[in-house]
UniProtKB/TrEMBL annotation:
One protein family per Pfam: MaoC_dehydratas
Protein name listed in UniProt: MaoC family dehydratase
Domain MaoC-like: 15-126
Classification via InterPro entries: HotDog_dom_sf, MaoC-like_dom, NodN-like
Family: Belongs to the enoyl-CoA hydratase/isomerase family.
Record-linked CDD domains: NodN
Gene source species: Microbacterium wangchenii
Length: 152
């Protein structure tokens, strides 16, 4: 499902290009538990089945930041750049978590190239992304703007 790479020299003409969707990727309870251990975020809605069942979510859900961090694999399927010496995540803007991701759910990522800025040493690209939950309804689980720099 990997998309064809966009040449670095052609990025400036790609504003508005639609990306994806990626393949589906599962967020398991093991992923959630490991993330909770690594970060210290052991909120019961993530790790305690009984407490989570009594919450508005009705069961354990993935951390929003865990879900956001899962962007790498699906992004590689829908967005690639050739001709750069390297690329980095410069940051995220406008991150929101409109809907929960129940433990064991499948997510996929879609988006578009929102901005392209030529810089002296790189091309900076902002991707407007949405994370969809399989069977999760109309609201995305995550919306965010991912800012990448592709160095010449």
């Amino acid at each position: 499902m990997t998309t064809e790479a966009i040449a670095l020299s052609e990025l400036s003409g790609q504003k508005g290009r639609e990306l994806g969707p990626s393949a589906w990727h599962t967020i398991t309870q093991h992923d959630i538990d490991v993330y909770a251990d690594l970060t210290g975020d052991d909120n019961p809605i993530h790790v305690d089945e009984a407490a989570a069942a009594a919450s508005p979510f009705g069961g354990r859900i993935a951390h929003g930041m865990l879900t956001l961090s899962m962007v790498v694999r699906p992004l590689r399927e829908i967005y690639r750049v050739s001709g750069a010496t390297t690329g980095i995540v410069y940051g995220f803007d406008r991150i929101r978590f409109p809907a929960p991701v129940p433990s064991g759910s499948r997510i996929r990522v879609s988006g578009r190239i929102a901005e392209v800025e030529e810089r002296q040493d790189a091309v900076q690209v902002t991707l407007a992304l949405a994370f969809e939950v399989d069977g999760g309804g109309a609201k995305p689980a995550v919306v965010a703007e991912l800012v990448l720099r592709h160095f010449r």
